[in-house]
């Protein structure tokens, strides 16, 4: 193996210098200024690797944001006032379910049960039950969410007549 001196390639233009360096590599010779050759190649490869890495990162971030939006299920909310009586819209549909549930029908709160009934959370979920009569177990207050735990309030006098969890007669 013999070395090509810097003088033999120094007078050349850059493209010719690369050819000279390539020929030195092909003919198994060593350039006296060889450390410069790998740097030129490495800088080009490094910029290619950095570009590819940044492209992969951008695609990953884009896909992650799209997935998170889909999983969170965020959507715009309607802040307009509810429609007035007689107008079509969400408000008029809601009124049909008000006070329409009968005994043992499922409910989410008291406003869905018919008059004389209340929404009670029992073993099977929330259902409409008759309000308590005098001498029967009762509840003295509703839970946040508009339903009662275990028993309804008293039919006469409401929560005020429920003393010791039993409906008392008013005097």
TrEMBL record:
GO biological process terms, semicolon-separated: digestion; lipid catabolic process
Top-rank taxon, per record: Eukaryota
Keywords: Membrane, Transmembrane, Transmembrane helix
Annotated region described as Disordered, given as residue ranges: 77-110
InterPro entries xrefs: Colipase
GO MF annotation list: enzyme activator activity
Membrane-crossing residue ranges in chain numbering: 36-61
Cellular component, GO annotation: extracellular region
Protein name as it appears in the record: Prokineticin domain-containing protein
């Amino acid at each position: 193996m013999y070395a090509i001196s810097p003088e033999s390639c120094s007078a050349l233009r850059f493209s010719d210098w690369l050819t000279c360096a390539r020929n030195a590599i092909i003919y198994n010779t060593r350039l006296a200024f060889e450390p410069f050759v790998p740097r030129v190649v490495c800088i080009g490869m490094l910029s290619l690797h950095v570009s590819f890495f940044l492209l992969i990162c951008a695609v990953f971030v884009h896909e992650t944001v799209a997935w998170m939006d889909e999983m969170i299920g965020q959507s715009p909310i309607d802040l307009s006032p509810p429609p007035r009586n007689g107008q079509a819209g969400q408000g008029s549909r809601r009124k049909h379910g008000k006070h329409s549930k009968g005994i043992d029908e499922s409910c989410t709160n008291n406003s869905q049960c018919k008059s004389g009934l209340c929404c009670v959370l029992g073993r099977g979920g929330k259902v409409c039950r008759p309000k308590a009569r005098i001498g029967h177990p009762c509840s003295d207050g509703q839970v946040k969410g508009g339903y009662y735990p275990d028993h309804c309030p008293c039919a006469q006098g409401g929560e005020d007549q429920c003393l010791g969890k039993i409906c008392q007669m008013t005097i």
